[in-house]
Specification:
Length: about 100
């Protein structure tokens, strides 16, 4: 049986991660867009592109990071069934990322 205190702690950690990660990603995108309106040449263009790209990458990566946190907590709780399922999902994501990066376009 899962300890309720550990379950609450895990849920708070995941909520914190998703909430503030989303805030950070959206803020990076907004700042990048503001910088792109400031000027389309030189330093502003480079920073705006990096900030928007970084914000999008963070928003895409948050669910994967959530899975990694879940895998760690399931392993600590010795819930091997859910840890195995989470590891399988992470392996599928890693394999699809590797195939997508390695295949010629």
């Amino acid at each position: 049986m899962i300890d309720l205190a550990l379950e609450r702690q895990r849920e708070r950690l995941l909520a914190f991660l998703l909430r503030y990660g989303s805030y950070l990603g959206c803020t990076a995108i907004a700042l990048g867009l503001l910088l792109s309106w400031k000027g389309n040449s030189g330093l502003y263009a480079n920073w705006s592109l990096w900030m928007v790209s970084g914000g999008i990458a963070l928003l895409i990566g948050l669910p994967v990071l959530r899975l990694a946190v879940l895998l760690a907590t399931f392993a600590v709780e010795r819930d091997y069934r859910f840890a195995g399922a989470t590891a399988a999902v992470l392996a599928i994501i890693a394999a699809s990322l590797a195939v997508g990066l390695l295949l010629p376009q």
